[in-house]
Design goal:
single chain, about 425 residues, alpha/beta, Rossmann fold, 7-stranded mixed β-sheet, 5-stranded mixed β-sheet, 12 strands, binds nicotinamide-adenine-dinucleotide
């Protein structure tokens, strides 16, 4: 069996094949561009607080080494598998190439439920996982960052474990660290801030008014919550928000400050008195102007793509829309899709800024970070929209084709090694 066999890897492969056909990529080049260069699978034994020892499975996949070090998040979630991580590493490659960053894609993860582990257990798990992958990471080799279930503290533990091993501080080994340890101002907010910026660019092109618009968000973690704040700042009303615990809906608008206080107390939006309960499945198909999946892969599928009722589908999560759903959305021109590798690229762009600042030990202010972020997103958005209009393809095909073609051309220029 294929080592990466998993529904999400099959989905990423199918997207790749469709774009490879569009680019007329010869059969002989396809597996070289598609398949991850390296994958590492490790056993992570951890002493639990109750005295037992549990072995967790951890993975790191480096998709290609052609353009520089590899870059991508570390996910803590019960469903993490080698195949899922491999698919996410592939998408990171296309995203970095679309944004013109000097990186290949990577992704990592540990199959665990972080909500069921204590802080001390999470620290032991993170330090042991880092220890196991030390030979494969480094500022010039592979630079992890946060993803679902991990955060600034996780990156601080990773940076410390690596630095202790080499004998001096190496802030550039991870991004998304606390600012005090060499993190960049604006990194924690970067993905959601970028999503809100691009949603507004999409609304501009459709002639929509942000102040009259409504939004629904699935996932209220780092990305979903910052996206909500960003959209609210432009005057848009949040009418539905969901997370792993449930979802709430209020057509007149959810009070975000009150919702945040509820989440701080209960660790979920479920039960928030300022809205009515609704299932996550129903949430996605309510009428709204902006729909933002900001949680897991494969949420918009062949089943519900015909039923969603938005004007802008902003893919803050990685891989939220399946190729079956894409076929249906391609026949619904009233919906503009901001594809994941563009929509959530703000995170890796500011991770790149953080890495550059760490390598130079010279740090930028917030205005400089945000200004440079918006300029890079604006350029990628305009270029993707132009490609899509000129070549009469979807925004996803346009974004993927730009990214995949760059990696393919770079591999041809360098030869077989990377
Ligand atoms: P997070 O762990 O901070 O938040 C994840 C949110 O999703 C939580 O609210 C969780 O409750 C919710 N969720 C989990 N399972 C769910 C389910 N079955 N139904 C509904 N909601 C569910 O993670 P994050 O960093 O915000 O990442 C969210 C998505 O954005 C992921 O797809 C990630 O790959 C992507 N992403 C993150 C970044 C980043 O900088 N953190 C960058 C690019 C893309």
């Amino acid at each position: 069996m294929h080592p990466y066999d998993h529904p999400t890897f099959r989905m990423a492969s199918r997207q790749f094949d469709l774009v490879a056909d569009f680019l007329e990529m010869p059969e002989g080049d396809r597996d070289r561009v598609r398949l991850p260069k390296r994958s590492i699978s490790v056993a992570v034994p951890v002493h639990l607080d109750d005295g037992r020892t549990q072995v967790f499975h951890g993975f790191r996949v480096q998709h290609h080494l052609t353009l520089g070090p590899t870059k991508g998040g570390i996910r803590y979630h019960p469903d993490v598998t080698l195949g899922e991580v491999a698919a996410l590493s592939m998408w990171m490659s296309w995203k970095c190439a679309l944004m013109g960053l000097p990186y290949g894609g990577a992704k990592g993860g540990v199959a665990c439920d972080p909500s069921k582990l204590s802080v001390a257990e999470l620290e032991r798990l993170t330090r042991r996982f880092t220890q196991e992958i030390i030979p494969f990471i480094g500022p010039q080799t592979d630079v992890p960052a946060p993803d679902m279930g991990t955060n600034e503290q996780t990156m601080a533990w990773m940076m410390d474990t690596y630095s202790t091993h080499v004998g001096h501080s190496v802030p550039g080994v991870v991004t998304g660290k606390p600012v005090l340890l060499g993190g960049s101002v604006g990194r924690r907010e970067a993905t959601g801030r970028g999503v809100a910026f691009l949603v507004n660019r999409a609304m501009d092109t459709l002639g929509m008014e942000a102040r009259e618009a409504t939004a629904i968000i699935q996932g209220y973690g780092n990305v979903g919550s910052v996206t909500a704040q960003g959209l609210e700042r432009f005057g848009t009303r949040m009418i539905g928000i969901g997370d792993a615990g449930g979802a709430v809906f209020n057509e007149r608008g959810l009070d975000l400050a009150a919702l945040d206080a509820h989440v701080a107390a209960h660790r979920t939006v479920a039960g928030f008195p300022g809205g009515a309960p609704i299932s996550n499945a129903d949430l996605l198909v309510q009428r709204c102007d902006i729909l933002v999946p900001a949680a897991l892969e494969r949420q918009i599928t062949g089943e519900n793509a015909g039923k969603i009722q938005c004007r802008v589908l902003a893919e803050a999560a990685n891989g939220p829309t399946t190729p079956d759903a894409d076929e249906i959305l391609a026949r619904r021109p009233e919906i503009i899709v901001l594809p994941d590798i563009l929509c959530n690229a703000g995170g890796v762009v500011v991770s790149y800024f953080e890495w550059v600042q760490d390598l130079q030990s010279f740090f930028w202010g917030e205005t400089e970070v945000i200004d440079r972020l918006y300029r890079m997103l604006e350029q990628a958005f305009s270029q993707t929209l132009k490609f899509s209009r000129e070549r009469r393809v979807t925004m996803r095909t346009a974004a993927l084709a730009s990214g995949i073609e760059r990696v393919w051309k770079a591999k041809r220029l360098r030869g077989l090694f990377p």
